[in-house]
Amino acid sequence: xxxxxxxxxxxxxxxxxxxxxxxxxxxxxxxxxxxxxxxxxxxxxxxxxxxxxxxxxxxxxxxxxxxxxxxxxxxxxxxxxxxxxxxxxxxxxxxxxxxxxxxxxxxxxxxxxxxxxxxxxxxxxxxxxxxxxxxxxxxxxxxxxxxxxxxxxxxxxxxxxxxxxxxxxxxxxxxxxxxxxxxxxxxxxxxxxxxxxxxxxxxxxxxxxxxxxxxxxxx
Length: 219
Prior knowledge:
four-stranded antiparallel β-sheet, alpha+beta
């Protein structure tokens, strides 16, 4: 029979209480840190393309029309046809980007990323790495995905110059590539570093959200 005044028993109980208090305090700190990571980003951000071709389209069109007038010669139909083709391209580019910077084609939340040309959202917690590159004519965002994730399917945008397009690739590793004529948020053009920082922050928030839910489920 245990002695209720046994000092070893009292010590063991005190150590047990200290351990539980320390464990609870550590858990609270982790939860607080996860919530901070989540709250660093807004619940949702929306993105449009930029107005780069809304500006450059008409400039190219005027330049092509001037070139057509200068080079027009019935005896040089080949050159005339080439310049006329450039005029058509510039006119199509101008028309297609007449509403540039006004239509949201991509949005991201603390859990998912949505793109108009994907048939399902991207689980941001499954994103392992993010890269952003501006190739001059288009900005390319690459999301490297976990090998276990279920990838959405993409719809190809046809007959549109430098339009908003997402592509799903399985090789060399699962990834989502999103192309657009630049990227803007709330009407402000974003550079590569800003886009990378925003997507990385939302990825971290999604990972933190998943970990937080697991901890809360364990009690």
